Amino acid sequence: MGIQKENLTLKIKKEWCKGCGICVAFCPKNVLALKDEKIEIVDPEKCIKCGLCELRCPDYAIFLGGNEDEEK
């Protein structure tokens, strides 16, 4: 049994983020923003979990993960 979409949350590895802003540009709900040249989740309630940010991030710095995923 796989992880249900509604159980996923956005996770960020700020140390991997180079501040390119590609994820911000592709987010259809304006959930993301650049702050101090790093990605930040500014409105998590608006996230529809479409995965475009994860798909487009060239540095794998943002992803949809379940509760068992912990930032390392």
From TrEMBL:
One of its GO terms (molecular function) is metal ion binding. The keyword Iron-sulfur applies. Gene3D superfamilies: 3.30.70.20. Keywords: 4Fe-4S, Iron, Iron-sulfur, Metal-binding. PROSITE patterns: 4FE4S_FER_1, 4FE4S_FER_2. Residues 8-36, 37-67 form the 4Fe-4S ferredoxin-type domain. Pfam families: Fer4_7. PANTHER family: ADENYLYLSULFATE REDUCTASE, BETA SUBUNIT, BLR5484 PROTEIN. This is 4Fe-4S ferredoxin-type domain-containing protein.
